[in-house]
Request: fold
Amino acid sequence: MSRIAERLNAAKAAGRKILVTYVVCGDPSPEATLPTIKALVAAGADVIELGVPFSDPMAEGPVIQKGHERALVHGTSLKSTLEIVKELRQTDQQTPVVLMGYANPIERFGYASFARAAADAGVDGILTVDLPPEEVKDLKQELDAVGMDNIFLLAPTTRPERAKVIAAHASGFLYYVSLKGVTGAGHLDVDSVKAKLAEFGQLTHLPVCVGFGIKDAATAKAIAQLADGVVVGSVLVDKMGELQDQGPEKIAAAVGDIVGNIRQALDSL
Reply:
């Protein structure tokens, strides 16, 4: 059983909502990433979603696009992202880490080489935004060989028959995009999320975490009442950009405070 499954099963048994937090590796500097991850874990994050910087992050809104740009200025790559995870594993063997990114860097790395390197570094799963289930067979074979979870997105426009296909290729959890648009968009429609989650709940046993539009403790709490957990990203990346000249310690403390408030709201359910 993967670290992701262990953590999510334990949360479910305890009646605890899952909190997934997203930051971009190398943003706003490589020195800030590890302290930030540790602060997120200390504040109550269950899963760390680590963005792999990419020059064309098509699913991201302006806030996270800027995070990718700041990271790329420092030359942060897929390989250096794996080095950060490896460094984290020297002191943290429990927290699940998911890499979120795009197919191009993985394809250039080579599926088999990537899977081995990621597993050796301590990565637990990947979410490849632009790799649909029809094209994931070869990568999934390599991920399965090293026991790594393959996480997929579901959208408001995903029909039940399509969701079944996606869920059949997925493991760990499913990430439901709560609205039509990019990361950081507004207009969160709780009733729409409720209807879609009820629909998807009939199709899979995997936990479903909801992201896009989760901005604070109030929105996290509202959505967590309907889902297994929430994904928080843009508000963290925005704060990191705001404090980019303040140094790693202040950045880590600030995002830790945001996540601590959200964790407290989830635990009040």
DSSP finds twelve helices and eight strands in the chain. The radius of gyration is 17 Å. Residues 102 and 129 are 6 Å apart (CA to CA).
